[in-house]
Every structure is written in C-alpha cells, then in structure tokens.
Q: What sequence folds into this?
C-alpha cells in the first residue's frame, strides 16, 4: 500500500509541473476576422509581425501550426510569415446557426518553446440594412405544426401609450430539416466472381420525412476506388447497383463502397455496401521451374535431381489445391519438398542407346469443379557414356579378289557401328598383324582407318596361295576406348594365266619326239597312246580339251576331245607310211584360252625286222640318246619273242585239258590282264609295252597329280621265269613309291622305251 501511495504522489507532482510549464508556454493570443466565402489564398494576417518573429526562423521550420481539425482551412507561408486561406470557408457549414463563428488554431515557436493561440472569426454577408425580426425562441417543426396564427402588438413610448396590432399568420414551410435515412446501415452482399455483366447486385433505399423537393432523394457513390467505379454503377433515382465490369476474386475479395443519399436541399445520409466475392475455379494452376538441368549423363545414379519447380493456383480453398503429376513412362518421379515446391529426380538407370532424350511433361491439376490443369514441357537429353564397343555388321567377312590384281586395288569395305554418340561413336579400323608365307601381313593388306576400306598392297598369285585369313579391329574414340575384332577371309580367284603343260609324251631336251608303236593289223579304234596334260589353273580355266591339229595321213588317227586318247580311225593300208607324225593341240577353257602342242611319232610295223630297220632310220648314230633307245627296243623285242614262245608252249599244254571249245574261239582270253590276241606275232611287243603303260590321274591342282601304274601279275604268267618273277614286283613297288618328280622322269623313260 505504501508503494502505491508513493506512485500516486509522484504522478500528482508530475502533473503539477506539466501544468505550470504549459501555462508559461502559452504566451499570447491573436485575433483575426475574415468574411466567409473568401477564395483560396485569401490573406488572413501577418503572424510573423503580430508575434514579433524573425522570418528567417520561420523559413528554417522553427514555426508551425499544430492545432488539429482546423488546419485544413489555413496555411502558413514560411517565406514571409503570412497566414492565408487554404480552402474556401462556408460559415453556415462550419457553425450553422451560431451567432458568432470562431475558429482557433495554435502556432508553436520551437526556439521560444511557446504556444500562441490564433482566433479567427468568420463573419456573415452584411448589407447594411436594419429591420425588425421575428425571432424564434425554439425550432419549428413543420412535421409537428404547419401553421401559427400570431397577434403582433406594437407599443410606442408616448403617454398615453399608443399601440397597434397586426395579425401574423406564420405558415411553417417545410424546411429540409430531415436528412434521408437508409433502411440499413450496411448492405452486405455476396456474389460469385463470374456473375455476368449487367446483373443487379444490390438496391439501397433511403427515405426523407420532408416533403416536396426536400424529400426527393438521389443516390451517389461517396467513397469508391477508381477501379471499383469502372466495375459498379449506381442508379441515382432507384438506388440499384449493377455490374458493368468483370469481377475477379483473385484481385479483390471484398469491395467496400460508401453510398450517399441526398435530398433536394442538400441534406444527406450515408450507408455502406459490403460486397463480398465468392471464388469460382476460373484460374488454372501455374508452374514455375526455378532450376532445370536440361541434360544428364546416362550413368547418373538414381535420385539425381533434374529440376526444382513451384506450383500455385490463384483460386482459394479446394479451387487452389494443386497436385502435380508426370507420365508413367518417364524414368523420373516428383517429390514434394514443402508447401508447393517439388523436385524432379531420376528413379532408374538411364540408357542413351535406348532413349536419347525425353519429352518431360509436368501437369498441375487443381481440385475445383470442374478441375483445371496446366502442363509444362521441356526436353531432357541423356548424355552419352562410352559403354558400347563397336559392332561389325557381320560376324564373319568373306570376300574375293582375282589374282594378278593391281597394287592398291580396293578389296571391299567393312562397317562397324557404335551405339554411342559423337566421339564415343567415332570408329577407327586396323588390321591385326600376321604373316602370309613368312612375310608380314601389313605388306599385303592395308585398311583405311576412317572408312574401313581394305586395299591390296601387292599383286596376288592364285598358284602361290588361295586365301588369306586375318582379323580387323574396330576401336571407338571414347576414354577409355572400346574395341571389337572380326575375322576376314579373302579368297584369291583364279585367272587363266597358265598354259596347259604336257606330261605325256614328254620330250627330251634334244628336241626329239616321242615314238609310239602301232601294229599294221590294228583295227579302227585301236588305242595308240594318250596325251596327258595338266593346267596349273583351277576351275574351268583348267578344263582341257584335245584336238588333232596336224597329221601325216589325215583321217588315219583321231584324238579324244576330253580324254586325249589317240586311236586309229580306220584300217592301215599299204600306202600308209611307216612313220606317222601327229601334232595334238591341248587347249584350256579360260577366257581367253591358252594352249600347248604335243608332237607324237607313230611307227606302223607288222614285224620286228621292219621295226628295227625303221627305228635305225629314225635314230641318229651319233646321238647317244638315240642309241639307248635302239638298245631298249632290241631288248624289248627279244624279251617279247621269248615271252611269245613261252605262251605258245603253255597254251598247247592247257588246250589238252580244256574241254570247252569256246576257249579256242575267244579272242578275249587274258593272261594277267593282257588279251591273248596281243601276244600273237608282232603284237606281243605292243602287249608287253602296254602291260607296263602308266596312267595319269589328275586333279585341278597340278601339284597333287600322280601317276598310277597297273599291278601286273607276274607269278601266274612267268612261272618258269625266275628273274622275271622277281623283277616284276620290284618294278611295281618301286614305281608306287616314287614322287612326282621321279614320275616325270620315269614317264620320259617309258616314252623312250615305247
């Protein structure tokens, strides 16, 4: 309680000091008088002079008007200290029926800390006339009493007093003493924001108790914003408020409009219209992408941020409640962060080779009825990573090139594709190093590193090798680079660049020709000899044909087209020469064809002396090789004679035992594969020679040709000839084991033997 008492005493003491200060601060009072209805800028008085103030102090802002409520009518000129009207003054509006209209304001002088009171009297429009007035003691109210009947008595000052009366009928005319009264102090209206233009929003109504013109009420907007004045229209007679513009809940949810009702004499009343707007879902959501990554590496981890975005809807409540979505086929998802912020992140691994870019569509949809939505679209590119090696279009390449090709000839072009992009997909080609018959592959084959075109660096020979196998590597330009290999087989195609080679009859180095024996008793079709030739080429280039190009006796011999066999075409006649010279043409099937010729000498004889005499005439004594041939022929003839004698004895012994007479008539009885008819007379020589004649079997490869000799059964034929029995198997065994070079030499020997 003591504390409270002390605080109360302090407050009372402070109030006393404050009142003393204010009393000293109010230093004086100035009175001015001005007539009413003066225009703005009218001079009221010289405050600086009347208060004894320095105009410089006034201009420095040390003097100012601080009174409230009246300052709107007056202003102080800080340059000269004059007080002037800032607004036209209406005495009746300010003071009404008050006889003396005074306005007061205070002027504070900051330097002196003094407050001066300025009293300004607003005077009426006096015209100088004097007249008696009937003064009302109280207000009249027509609405209570409309007519007053009065008797006015005038008394003079004489004696006796004289008086006069006058009847005064006071008709109380209607004075505009009743302002219009609105039926509601506030008109509250709620309308949808999409209400159509021209719609009636509200009707205000005010009544006036006066009559006539004083009761005629007109309506007008008193306080209304510039924008609202373009939207609303008020009928001044009916008070109807209609819509002339578009309403927008998002711009303004509430309009406060003050309406004034004024009667014919200027009295007025005011009311307020509170127009509330109800939201309609007329705004689609807005999507703002604050951060966007337009490209992302294909090896980005799951959850990599692609974009940050914000969505908003200007509508309210459920009309402004927005949800975001993206298509399900995108490799990303939306995550809500806070409020209306979202992030777009990846949700699985990316593969640029499958999809190189995505059209990302983000859709924002509100919950209004009907719902509105907005979409935004951007392109997301997937950046390449070198994760794919080059892939050749074929798993194995096979190509062909004709032999004897020019150096630098183009073979063919390999192609490898890389599913990556740009530098990662730039493919370079190279040939892996190897060897061809001991020489580096790089000396035979080259490849264009950019195009993959293969070139031959030298001329190939089919007879040397027929195919080349190597590998080509394709490498991309990534970091680190990736590569792949493919096998290439290059086949060398044959050209007809080799002429036929005559194997039989073979010719000695001295230029002599082969000699063949033909019995004069030979029948047509008798096989004299066979021309054997090979061709180092292959295919149709090695297909050989034979034809008789020249003969001593045309028409006596014929040559098999494909076999090369020389046979008699007719019987020999006496006029036919003992020595027949034949020229056989051997031609291949190439384009153009190549050919070779073989010259064969056929000796026609029926007896050994005749053969010997002819051979002696054919051979040259000075030629050792010819002498050798003569000796061989004599030896063969001697052996043939012995063999013929043996056969005759053997046949005589066996004829006794055979009962089948057909054996005597058959000319096809063979002994060890040799016809009996060949052992009669001089034919024995031919039979002996042909029993050891060789055959040549050829393949398309001349290096694989071999000579086949028939196995002669010597044991059944020469049972009593021990030397012959031993020499025959030896001959067969030796012949079967000799190589191709020895076979050629042996063939030359047999040609000499024949």
A:
């Amino acid at each position: 309680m003591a504390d409270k008492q002390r605080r109360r005493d302090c407050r009372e003491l402070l109030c006393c000091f404050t009142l003393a200060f204010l009393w000293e601060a109010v230093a004086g009072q100035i009175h001015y008088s001005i007539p009413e209805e003066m225009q703005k800028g009218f001079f009221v008085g010289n405050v600086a002079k009347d208060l004894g103030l320095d105009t410089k102090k006034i201009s420095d802002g040390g003097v100012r008007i601080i009174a409230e409520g009246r300052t709107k009518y007056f202003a102080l000129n800080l340059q000269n200290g004059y007080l002037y009207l800032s607004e036209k003054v209406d005495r009746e509006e300010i003071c009404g029926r008050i006889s003396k209209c005074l306005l007061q304001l205070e002027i504070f002088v900051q330097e002196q800390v003094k407050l001066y009171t300025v009293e300004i009297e607003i005077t009426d429009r006096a015209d100088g006339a004097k007249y008696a007035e009937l003064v009302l003691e109280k207000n009249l109210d027509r609405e209570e009493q409309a007519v007053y009947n009065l008797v006015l008595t005038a008394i003079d000052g004489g004696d006796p007093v004289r008086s006069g009366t006058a009847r005064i009928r006071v008709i109380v005319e209607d004075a505009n003493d009743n302002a219009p009264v609105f039926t509601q102090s506030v008109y509250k209206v709620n309308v949808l924001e999409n209400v159509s233009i021209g719609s009636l929003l509200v009707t205000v109504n005010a009544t006036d108790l006066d009559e006539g013109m004083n009761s005629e009420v007109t309506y007008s907007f008193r306080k209304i914003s510039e924008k609202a004045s373009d939207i609303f229209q008020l009928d001044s007679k009916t008070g109807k408020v209609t819509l002339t513009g578009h309403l927008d809940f998002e711009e303004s949810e509430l309009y406060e409009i003050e309406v004034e009702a004024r009667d014919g004499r200027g009295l007025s009343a005011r009311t307020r219209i509170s127009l509330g707007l109800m939201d309609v879902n007329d705004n689609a959501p807005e999507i703002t992408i604050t951060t966007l990554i337009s490209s992302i590496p294909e090896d980005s981890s799951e959850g990599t941020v692609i974009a940050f975005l914000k969505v908003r809807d200007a509508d309210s409540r459920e009309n402004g409640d927005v949800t975001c979505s993206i298509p399900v086929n995108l490799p990303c998802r939306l995550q809500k962060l806070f409020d209306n912020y979202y992030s777009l992140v990846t949700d699985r691994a990316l593969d640029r080779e499958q999809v190189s870019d995505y059209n990302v569509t983000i859709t924002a949809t509100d919950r209004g009825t009907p719902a509105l939505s907005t979409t935004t679209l951007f392109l997301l590119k997937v950046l390449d990573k070198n994760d794919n090696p080059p892939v050749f279009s074929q798993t194995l390449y096979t190509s062909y090139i004709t032999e004897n090709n020019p150096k630098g000839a183009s073979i063919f072009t390999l192609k490898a594709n890389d599913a990556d992009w740009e530098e990662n997909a730039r493919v370079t080609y190279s040939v892996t190093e190897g060897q061809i018959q001991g020489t580096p592959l790089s000396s035979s084959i080259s490849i264009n590193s950019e195009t993959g075109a293969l070139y031959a660096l030298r001329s190939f020979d089919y007879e040397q090798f027929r195919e080349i196998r190597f590998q080509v590597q394709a490498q991309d330009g990534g970091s680190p680079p990736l590569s792949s290999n493919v096998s290439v087989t290059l086949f060398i195609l044959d050209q007809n660049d080799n002429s036929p080679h005559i194997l039989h009859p073979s010719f000695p180095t001295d230029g002599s020709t082969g000699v063949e024996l033909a019995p004069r008793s030979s029948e047509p079709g008798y096989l004299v000899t066979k021309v054997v030739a090979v061709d180092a080429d292959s295919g149709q280039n090695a297909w050989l044909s034979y034809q008789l190009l020249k003969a001593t006796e045309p028409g006596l011999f014929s040559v098999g087209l494909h076999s090369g066999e020389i046979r008699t075409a007719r019987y020999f006649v006496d006029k036919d020469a003992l020595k027949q010279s034949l020229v056989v043409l051997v031609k291949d099937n190439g384009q153009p064809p190549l050919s070779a010729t073989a010259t064969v000498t056929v000796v026609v004889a029926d007896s050994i002396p005749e053969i010997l005499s002819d051979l002696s005439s054919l051979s040259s004594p000075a030629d050792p090789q010819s002498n050798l041939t003569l000796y061989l022929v004599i030896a063969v003839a001697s052996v043939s004679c012995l063999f013929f004698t043996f056969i005759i004895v053997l046949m005589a012994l066996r004829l006794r035992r055979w009962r089948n007479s057909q054996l005597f008539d058959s000319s096809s009885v063979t002994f060890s594969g040799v016809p009996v008819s060949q052992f009669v007379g001089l034919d024995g020589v031919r039979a002996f020679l042909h029993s050891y004649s060789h055959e040549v079997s050829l393949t398309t490869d001349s290096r694989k040709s071999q000579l086949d000799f028939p196995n002669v059964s010597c044991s059944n034929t020469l049972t009593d000839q021990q030397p012959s029995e031993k020499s025959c198997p030896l001959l067969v065994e030796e012949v079967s084991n000799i190589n191709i070079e020895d076979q050629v030499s042996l063939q030359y020997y047999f040609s000499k033997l024949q």
Observations:
- The chain is about 20% helix and 35% strand.
- The mean pLDDT is 78.
